[in-house]
């Protein structure tokens, strides 16, 4: 069977398969080598990420959920009738329930995610738990936002982008995303944005390099996915997971470091690695209130509220258009 047939069998579109190939070829040809983090999230990667959120060292998910429980009732009071909750990069939609419970008269929930499997599983679970809620999933890349389904109705749109996923984007891409979201959501929109805050490396680094090695498996999974989906011949034992705090850029970085000199093949293409050379697989930017305000305002939003959790501290901002 062709690559495209294989991709279809896995429920992946030809477009997605081609986009992964393009990103991999461009990323391995670049110096330093890099790969966009969105390719982590195949079915196995999404499962590994769920496991990360339960690790003792990975505080962001727990801290944000606790903070959301505290602020959601008050913020939901501003949604108004027939509001539509639009979640970007929804994944397993676990935090969504906190907002849904605080806003029982939402007209619809539109989860947008790149992983069709994660999206369908989450939609099925939510329909069961909230039978009165219209769940209208949208498979998509939040960097190329589409049009909201008409069935969502005309109520106020509330964007929801938790989990500090915005931290994976470059400053320019983050601003573009917030501007595109403002356009997609329409007039009088609200937007709930979750960010991780700058803190000591002694807390940050273990969150991205846990004792059980789950984050290492998550990082290496992107090479396993390339071998399986694209036919590369990465030797997974020859790469090591690295997590680094980049102080100047205020970001955690994940890399995959080649432990020996080697070549990796993709069809007729050959990519060379020096020993110690890395593929930069993720940046996770950390913020403070001033940085969030500057970013939101540059994209045309007003910051209506900025709430901070207990330590290890994360923040939620409520934006209004
Ligand atoms: C889901 C992108 C927010 O950057 O903290 C977790 C992904 N990477 N451990 C993050 C991730 C390594 C996570 N985001």
TrEMBL record:
Top-level taxonomic group: Bacteria
Domain Histidine-specific methyltransferase SAM-dependent intervals: 20-318
Protein's name in the database: Dimethylhistidine N-methyltransferase
Residue numbers of the full-length protein present here: 401 to 721 of 721
